[in-house]
Design brief:
The protein is mainly beta. Helices cover about 5% and strands about 55% of the residues. The longest helix has 7 residues. The relative contact order is 0.13.
Length: about 675
C-alpha cells in the first residue's frame, strides 16, 4: 500500500497544455522547479509521457504554425523521479521551443540575455562569442551541457558555446541556478545550462531564410524521418554578416545528425553527431590594444547514450567525444601572437537509479580525459609537429551517491560527489549536498539547500601567456560553500518565486593585476569571495483578464540583486571575478495583434559594478502566420538604439532590423 501511495503522488494533472514532448514544461509557463533528487532526470534530459483527450480543432493558430490544443485533462507521470514539481528542491528556468520561436533572439547567447540570473557578456553579436555566467560567477564556473552531456571547453569558457546547434533544433533549455556539483559534476560551480534537442520526427521538413541590416544572411534546413524503430533528423545551417563595425564580420556553419533507436516502449539509444565551423573578426575582443584580432574555431561532437531497465531500476550509460580546433590571430594575417590549439575530451558515464518504498537512490560515475596540443598551452612535446609544440592532459573521475525520501509534507535529499583529477596527486575532493522541501499547502512550498562545490582550472588558467596575459604558478582548484532559501507560489494563472542565495568561495581563480600600472593580467587564486543576493520572478497569464491580448498572452518579470565582498587586498584590477551585475531586470510581454499576428516585447535593464552607468535595451519580434506551414517574422533588436558595452572596449550593436521566412511540412 505504501508503494502505491508513492507512485500515485507522481501524477500531475493540468487543465491546458500543448501536445508536445515538452508539454509539461510549457504548462508551467517558463519557470519550474526540479529537485536535487532529479540528478538523473536532469542529467539525462528525458521528459515524461503525456496522454490527451478531447482536442479542440477550432483554436487559433500558435506561433509555431500549429493549432493550439484545448485539452480537458492531461496526465503527466514522472518517468524517472516520482516527485511533483511543486515539491522539488531546485529552482530551474525552462525555456520551451515555443518561447524560443517567439523571442527576437538569433542565437542561444542572445536568448539567455532575457534571464535575470544570467550575465551574458557579449563580445560579438548574434552568437559569435559571449561569456555566460550565473549569479556572479565567472564564465568558467558555468557548465554547458548538450542533452545532459558536458560540452564545456576545458581550454577556456570563452569557447563553451561553440557547438553545432541552431535555435530550431532545441526542444527546451534548462537553466539551473546555483552550484549543482552533485547533479552535473565539478564544472557546475555557479550553475548549469542544459540544452535539450528535438528527437521526435514530428515535422518532416523545416526551412528558414533570413536577411537584415549589416548584410546579415542566414539559411537553415532540417529534415526528419521516422524509419522502423528509429527517429532520425539532419539539421544544416549557414549565417553570416559583414559586421556592425570594422572587423566584426562573421561566417558560421552548423551540421547536426541525430538518431533515436526505440528498443522497446521504455528502452532507447540515442546517437548524436555534430560539426560547426566559425570564423569571425574579433575587434578588441581580448584587448583594446589590438583591434585587428581574428579567430577561427571548429567543433566536432559525438555521443551515444542509452536509457535502459525497468520501472524500479534504470541504467543510463553514456559515451562521448568532443573535439575543438582554435586558431587565434592577435593581428589578422600575421603570425605575431598567433595561437594554434586542438582540444580533445573523451568520456564515459553510467547512472543507475533505484526506486523503492524507502525512497529513490542514484549512483553515478563518470570518467573524463582531456588533452590539448598547441603552441601556447602545456609543456614541450618530445616530437613537435608544425605549430603543435606543446601538450597537456589530465584525467578526471567523478563518483556520486544520492538518496531522496518523502515524509508526508517533507522531501529530504542528501548525497555527495567524490572527485579526483590526475593533476592533483593523491588528492580527493568530497562535495556533499543537502536539500529540504516543506510543502504545507498546494500552492506554497519552502525550500532550503546547502552544498559544497569546486572547479578545476582550465588549460588557459594553467598555461596561457601572450602580450597581455601571463599564467601564474601553482594554480589550484577553487572551492565554495553555498546556501539557498526559496519560497514558491503557483496557481494555474500565476507563478512566483523569491530566492535568497549566499556563496562563500575560497581560492577563487581570476586574471588580475596587483597594481594599476602593471601591463599584464596574471592568473591567480585570489583568496576569498562572498557572493549573495536575491532573485524574484513572476509570470502571469493575461488571457483570462485581458482577452483582447489573446488567450495565450503572458507577462513575465524577472529581477536579480547581488553584492560581492572580496578578501584579496593585493588585487588592484580583476578581469572577471569582481565584474558582476549589481542589478538586472527583465520583462517579456507576448500577445496577439490579431488571429494570425503575434508579438513579443523584451526589455532588459542592467547595472554592472565596473561600468559608469546602467543601460536598458528593448527588442521586438512580430510573426505573421500565413498558414499552418508558412510564417513570416520581423525582428527589431535594440529598438532604442542604446549605446552600450558588456565588456569594456567592445561596444555592442545599436538598432538592428532583420526578417525571416520559415516553412514547416
Amino acid at each position: 500500500m505504501q508503494q502505491q501511495n508513492l507512485l500515485s503522488r507522481s501524477v500531475l494533472r493540468f487543465r491546458r497544455m500543448t501536445r508536445k514532448s515538452y508539454g509539461a514544461f510549457n504548462t508551467m509557463h517558463r519557470v519550474i522547479n526540479i529537485g536535487t533528487l532529479s540528478s538523473l532526470a536532469l542529467a539525462c534530459a528525458y521528459v515524461s509521457t503525456a496522454s490527451a483527450q478531447n482536442v479542440s480543432t477550432s483554436a487559433p493558430l500558435s506561433i509555431e504554425g500549429e493549432p493550439e490544443k484545448e485539452i480537458d485533462q492531461v496526465t503527466v507521470t514522472a518517468s524517472k523521479v516520482a516527485t511533483p514539481l511543486s515539491e522539488a528542491t531546485r529552482l530551474v528556468t525552462v525555456i520551451s521551443a515555443k518561447e524560443i520561436a517567439q523571442t527576437p533572439a538569433r542565437s542561444i547567447q542572445e536568448l539567455l540575455t532575457y534571464i535575470a540570473g544570467i550575465d551574458v557578456a557579449q563580445r560579438g553579436a548574434q552568437g559569435v562569442q559571449a561569456d555566460i555566467s550565473i549569479r556572479g560567477g565567472s564564465h568558467d564556473q558555468t557548465i554547458i551541457l548538450l542533452n545532459g552531456i558536458n560540452i564545456s571547453s576545458s581550454k577556456t569558457g570563452h569557447l563553451s558555446f561553440d557547438f553545432p546547434i541552431n535555435l530550431s533544433d532545441i526542444e527546451r533549455i534548462e537553466i539551473l541556478r546555483g552550484p549543482s556539483a552533485l547533479i552535473y559534476g565539478t564544472g557546475a560551480f555557479s550553475g548549469a545550462i542544459n540544452i535539450i534537442t528535438k528527437h521526435e520526427a514530428e515535422k518532416s521538413l523545416y526551412a528558414k531564410v533570413s536577411a537584415g541590416m549589416h548584410r546579415l544572411t542566414g539559411a537553415e534546413l532540417r529534415g526528419a524521418l521516422a524509419l522502423g524503430k528509429t527517429q532520425n533528423s539532419l539539421s544544416l545551417s549557414r549565417r553570416s554578416s559583414a559586421g556592425y563595425r570594422s572587423n566584426t564580420d562573421y561566417e558560421i556553419y552548423n551540421a547536426l545528425w541525430q538518431s533515436r533507436l526505440m528498443l522497446s516502449e521504455a528502452n532507447r539509444m540515442d546517437l548524436q553527431l555534430g560539426y560547426s565551423d566559425k570564423q569571425f573578426g574579433a575587434n578588441s575582443f581580448y584587448s583594446p590594444k589590438y583591434p585587428n584580432q581574428y579567430e577561427h574555431t571548429r567543433r566536432a561532437t559525438a555521443s551515444l547514450r542509452g536509457d535502459l531497465g525497468s520501472s524500479h531500476l534504470r541504467f543510463l550509460p553514456t559515451l562521448f567525444w568532443d573535439h575543438e580546433f582554435d586558431r587565434f590571430d592577435l593581428i589578422k594575417g600575421s603570425t605575431v601572437g598567433q595561437n594554434h590549439h586542438i582540444v580533445n575530451n573523451y568520456g564515459a558515464g553510467l547512472i543507475m537509479n533505484y526506486s523503492s518504498t524507502l525512497g529513490t537512490t542514484t549512483l553515478a560515475g563518470e570518467l573524463r580525459f582531456e588533452e590539448v596540443v598547441g603552441n601556447k598551452l602545456g609543456t614541450p612535446r618530445s616530437k613537435p609537429e608544425s605549430y603543435y609544440t606543446k601538450h597537456a592532459s589530465r584525467f578526471n573521475t567523478n563518483l556520486s551517491l544520492e538518496h531522496t525520501v518523502k515524509l508526508d509534507k517533507w522531501l529530504i535529499s542528501a548525497g555527495a560527489l567524490l572527485n579526483h583529477n590526475s593533476l592533483l596527486k593523491n588528492k580527493y575532493d568530497f562535495l556533499p549536498s543537502v536539500s529540504v522541501n516543506y510543502h504545507p499547502l498546494d500552492r506554497w512550498s519552502f525550500v532550503a539547500t546547502w552544498s559544497r562545490s569546486m572547479r578545476l582550472p582550465t588549460f588557459n588558467d594553467l598555461w596561457y601567456s601572450d602580450p597581455n596575459h601571463k599564467h601564474g604558478e601553482n594554480i589550484q582548484p577553487e572551492y565554495a560553500h553555498s546556501f539557498e532559501a526559496i519560497v514558491k507560489y503557483q496557481t494555474s494563472q500565476l507563478q512566483a518565486h523569491l530566492s535568497y542565495f549566499l556563496m562563500k568561495g575560497s581560492n577563487l581563480l581570476d586574471w588580475v593585476k596587483f597594481a594599476p600600472t602593471e601591463t599584464l593580467f596574471t592568473s591567480h587564486n585570489i583568496s576569498e569571495l562572498t557572493n549573495q543576493g536575491i532573485e524574484a520572478g513572476l509570470t502571469l497569464r493575461l488571457g483570462q483578464y485581458l482577452p483582447l491580448l489573446g488567450d495565450g498572452s503572458k507577462l513575465s518579470l524577472d529581477y536579480l540583486y547581488m553584492t560581492q565582498r572580496h578578501h584579496a587586498p593585493r588585487v588592484a584590477v580583476s578581469k572577471y571575478a569582481l565584474n558582476y551585475l549589481r542589478h538586472k531586470f527583465t520583462t517579456q510581454l507576448s500577445h496577439q495583434l490579431s488571429r494570425r499576428v503575434e508579438a513579443l516585447w523584451a526589455l532588459r535593464y542592467q547595472d554592472r559594478v565596473n561600468q559608469p552607468s546602467p543601460f536598458a535595451t528593448l527588442d521586438l519580434k512580430v510573426d505573421y502566420l500565413v498558414n499552418q506551414h508558412l510564417r513570416v517574422g520581423l525582428e527589431m533588436n535594440n529598438l532604442t538604439d542604446t549605446q552600450y558595452s558588456d565588456i569594456a572596449g567592445v561596444p555592442q550593436p545599436g538598432f538592428w532590423l532583420s526578417g525571416n521566412i520559415s516553412y514547416r511540412l
